[in-house]
Specification:
The structure holds two protein chains of two kinds. By secondary structure, chain A is of the alpha/beta class. Chain A has a domain of 67 residues. Helix content of chain A is 38%, strand content 25%. Chain A is globular. Chain A starts with a strand and ends with a helix. Chain B is 83% helix and 0% strand. Chain B starts with 5 loop residues before the first helix and ends with a helix. Classes of the chains: A alpha/beta, B mainly alpha. The complex binds adenosine-5'-diphosphate and magnesium ion. Adenosine-5'-diphosphate binds next to β2 and α1 of chain A. Chain B: It is a multi-pass membrane protein. Chain B: Pfam families: BPD_transp_1. Chain B: Its main location: membrane. Chain B: This is Amino acid ABC transporter permease. Chain B: InterPro entries: AA_ABC_transptr_permease_3TM, ArtM/GltK/GlnP/TcyL/YhdX-like, MetI-like, MetI-like_sf.
Chain lengths: 242, 216
């Protein structure tokens, strides 16, 4: 049984048909890169997987649980699915350490000491142990994004969803974030990332999913798919990106 | 006819100022309490509750405070509910204050990025937990300055209570004027006292605003 399973998922915003029957099956430990033009439904797909958006037809199963956007369900889902956003969404009124400790304390009901230990471990992992007491706005974009990753990891998720998490960063800061992702991939976490980083998709990813007009247009091994695209749409897309 | 020395005038005005302060405090406390409840109703996202809040705000923002006071005072007594000028003033000022505060606070909560809600949700926090740990601490920082600023409007609004006969600063000013026929002197003093009450608040509101703008 795969860890994340989407079956004929349809999603509408009002009359607008965003996802048109998505089938996707992701195994534990896989690193999936979702690529595609802006507006093709990539973010919406991720947001359906963790229940931030409701879908209207089909089914999504994560770690054996059917996904709906019910509040209770989203909270249960949060235990197995973490999400990183393009613009970090750190809590600006809390220190880096408090950002990471928050969910373990409140949601997992860990003691403060336990939560602090987790937070220090996770910050160590992303190379920011010394920033524990700093506020997010004193950090660079790359550092803030790494804190966001540590914050998600503190809930020990099985899957990490990343929505263009390097797109808001200055080019010289992209590498440090990708490096953290690479380490996580090596440790076996399941990653589903919407990305424009084709090199990362090729070198680290196990599979590339090309989305076009709300459909999975093409998918496969990155090395094959990116060098030998089958459809005109993917050819055109790769021509524009590379 | 009684003679009023300048000292008498000032003493009488200062005595009346106590009632203005008390009425302002009561209205502000009443207004913030009701506004808190209305904000909570609005935040549940329930559309019926949202509607109730919207209608409430429209009614009390869309009509003059004086009319609200008249309705509370004269209207209720015609309906058979005897109500003192003091109660009518507090009641109408509470409506007025809460209707404005709930809108001010909504603006503050809305300025927080949607991503704060979403990130909390993705971490497994429930609605109330998100409100308590993420949204309110940030919203309160933003809301303090405009709320303190608005308290100036409440103080000035209490002057209308003089028209329904509540004896506060403006009413005593009118009475002293009738006795002394020195409107310029009396009302200047009244205005100065209002200014001394209001200015520190608007000054403090600006300080808070600056402090908020430079800090996180
Ligand atoms: N909340 C929303 N309401 C209405 N339309 C939306 C909403 N979010 C996204 N869309 C539309 O859905 C389409 C897919 O959006 P999105 O999933 O963000 O695409 P991508 O991430 O691939 O750029 C776009 O046309 C976008 O305008
Ligand atoms: Mg997107």
């Amino acid at each position: 049984m795969s860890l994340v399973d989407l079956h004929q998922v349809h999603k509408y915003y009002g009359d607008f048909h965003v996802l048109k029957g998505i089938d996707l099956s992701i195994n534990a430990g896989e690193v999936i890169s979702i690529i595609g033009k802006s507006g093709s439904g990539k973010s919406t797909l991720l947001r359906c997987i963790n229940g931030l958006e409701a879908y209207q037809k089909g089914g999504i199963v994560v770690d054996g649980n059917e996904v709906t956007s019910e509040d209770v369900q989203v909270r249960r889902l949060a235990l197995s699915v973490g999400m990183i956003f393009q613009n970090f969404n750190l809590f600006p009124h809390k220190t880096v350490g408090e950002n990471v400790m928050l969910a373990p304390t409140i949601v997992l009901k860990k003691s403060k000491a336990e939560a602090e230990k987790i937070a220090r471990n996770m910050l160590e992992k992303v190379g920011l142990a010394e920033k524990f007491d700093n506020y997010p706005d004193t950090l660079s974009g790359g550092q803030q994004q790494r804190v966001a990753i540590a914050r998600a990891l503190a809930m020990s998720p099985k899957v990490l969803l990343c929505d263009e998490i390097t797109s808001a960063l200055d080019p010289e800061l992209v590498g440090e974030v990708l490096k953290v992702l690479e380490t996580l991939a090596e440790e076996g976490i399941t990653l589903i990332l919407v990305t424009h980083e084709m090199n990362f998709a090729r070198e680290v990813g196990n599979r590339v999913v090309f989305m076009h007009q709300g459909k999975v247009w093409e998918e496969g091994d990155p090395k094959v798919l990116l060098t030998n695209p089958q459809t005109d749409e993917l050819k055109q897309f790769l021509g524009a990106v590379l | 006819m009684i003679e009023f020395s300048n000292l008498d005038i000032i003493r009488n005005l200062l005595f009346a100022t106590q009632w203005t302060i008390l009425l302002s405090l009561a209205a502000f406390i009443g207004g913030t309490s009701v506004a808190l409840a209305l904000t909570a109703m609005r935040l549940t996202g329930n559309s019926a509750m949202n509607m109730v809040v919207r209608v409430y705000v429209e009614i009390f923002q869309g009509t003059p405070l004086l009319m609200q006071m008249f309705i509370c005072f004269f209207g209720l007594s015609i309906l058979g509910y005897e109500i003192s000028a003091w109660s009518a003033a507090i009641l109408s000022l509470t409506f007025f204050t809460s209707a404005f505060l709930v809108e001010i606070w909504r603006g503050c909560i809305d300025t927080l990025p949607k991503g704060q809600w979403e990130a909390s949700r993705c971490l497994g926090l429930g609605f109330l937990q998100t409100l308590r740990h993420i949204i309110l601490p940030q919203a309160i920082r933003v809301a303090t300055a405009p709320t303190v600023g608005f308290s100036v409007q409440v103080i000035k609004g209490t002057a209308l209570a003089s028209i329904i006969g509540f004896v506060e600063l403006t009413k005593v000013g009118t009475m002293l004027n009738n006795a002394t026929f020195e409107p310029f002197k009396v009302f200047s003093l009244v205005a100065i006292i209002y200014f001394l009450l209001c200015y520190p608040l608007s000054w403090y509101s600006k300080v808070l605003e600056k402090k908020f703008n430079v800090s996180r």
